[in-house]
Design a protein that fits this description.
The chain has 14 helices and 13 strands. 35% of the residues are buried.
């Protein structure tokens, strides 16, 4: 793990202090939440969105639609779940891998992950660390001979006790995870949460494999990815969930500041960096309403969310019932550049309706705000039930 360091030194000139509305405007624009159709529509819009955001987090909870579909719907009004399947399985423009969590990532960026895959092969993560490399070789031979498979295609398991929250009682799943994280396998198809594993070379029609990026190129990529998706960057925002730039990042950012490619600014006293273009005066835009996933890129970095919006989101699914403030699976509601409410929603798929279990106002309730949220809830319900 790289050594962390303090923020890069800046020029002697005092950084410009941004107001919170200015900072929110820049971040919302970078997240493409200030434009109703920033990526167009159709299957290609899904690829464009993931390429712009850098990654879209996957989550298993399905109280409402799963996070990856929800995040894409927030930026693609005409989004269809089949569009993500098309991108992953047919067009092969996105793939799954670990960022700060399991996520959909652009295939164009796969070379930035190849060294990480190699690292996992020699130093596996805890929840598949006891997978036997010989079992993986046997499994690879089976897939090479019989084709891609899912965990349901393996019926020889003797269940074992789990030793990690994210682990599995099925030894074969640990072997599949080992092959996946070490870059021997890729997830060629996902139906709900059922994953089909294929040889990565065969799925992408390799060889040759792309050339793995150098450590310097990976560092540059992380900075550029954050600048594109965040507009304003800081150590915690680039390194999430870590809190500081690496020494290499600090050096690169300091060099960009000297060349005037980046501008130091402060947000409520905290140092950030932005391109000169990101700081240009905004185009007037109609305030939009978004019911956001707790795993949305705007929400997942809780500390940054609180700094920019003054709202602290707590994921209460992991909080004891008696200590919950808002509910099990609450969704922040954004109107324009303010988080005005938090909704605890649940999709009743049998009754085909979206249930509002609790509605909490963060900002004062007004008839206009309530009308706008109710209007968006109608669109959101149609998406949940698959009719939009």
């Amino acid at each position: 793990m790289p050594t962390m360091t303090k923020a890069p030194a800046t020029t002697s000139k005092q950084p410009r202090a941004l107001t919170l509305p200015e900072a929110r405007r820049i971040w919302l624009h970078a997240q493409r939440l200030d434009d109703r159709t920033p990526f167009g529509d159709g299957a290609a819009a899904t690829t464009r969105a993931i390429e712009h955001l850098g990654y879209v987090q996957i989550d298993t909870i399905n109280v409402i639609e799963r996070a990856h579909h929800h995040i894409l719907f927030s930026r693609i009004p005409a989004y269809r779940r089949a569009d993500l399947h098309q991108a992953q399985t047919v067009d092969k423009t996105v793939f799954e891998y670990w960022t700060h969590a399991l996520a959909f990532v652009p295939v164009r960026d796969i070379r930035f992950y190849l060294n990480e895959m190699k690292h996992h092969a020699s130093e596996p993560m805890r929840w598949y660390a006891d997978a036997d490399p010989n079992d993986l070789k046997k499994l690879l031979r089976q897939i090479r001979k019989d084709g891609a498979l899912s965990i349901r295609d393996i019926d020889t398991d003797e269940l074992v006790e789990k030793d990690h929250l994210w682990g599995s009682r099925k030894p074969s799943k640990r072997v599949l995870q080992y092959g996946f994280y070490s870059g021997e396998l890729t997830i060629s198809e996902r139906i709900g949460m059922l994953k089909t594993y294929e040889l990565i070379d065969r799925h992408f029609n390799w060889p040759p494999r792309p050339r793995a990026a150098t450590e310097r190129q990976i560092t540059e990529h992380l900075i550029d990815r954050a600048l594109t998706a965040q507009g304003l960057i800081s150590g915690p925002s680039v390194m999430h969930p870590r809190l500081r730039f690496t020494p290499e990042m600090a050096e690169i950012i300091e060099g960009r500041v000297r060349r005037k490619q980046l501008v130091p600014v402060t947000v409520d006293g905290e140092l950030h960096f932005a391109t000169p273009e990101a700081l240009e005066p905004p185009t007037a835009r109609e305030p939009l309403v978004h019911i956001l996933s707790p795993f949305d890129p705007l929400v997942i970095q809780r500390r940054r969310l609180k700094l920019f919006f003054g709202y602290e989101h707590v994921f209460e699914a992991y909080v004891k019932v008696e200590k919950r403030r808002f509910g099990y699976f609450t969704l922040p509601v954004l109107i324009g550049d303010q988080i005005v409410a938090v909704l605890d929603l649940k999709t009743d798929r049998a009754a085909r309706k979206l249930l509002i279990q609790a509605w909490h106002w963060i900002e004062p309730e007004t008839p206009q705000r309530k009308y706008l949220i109710e209007e968006e809830l109608g669109r959101f319900e149609r998406f949940q039930l698959g009719s939009e």
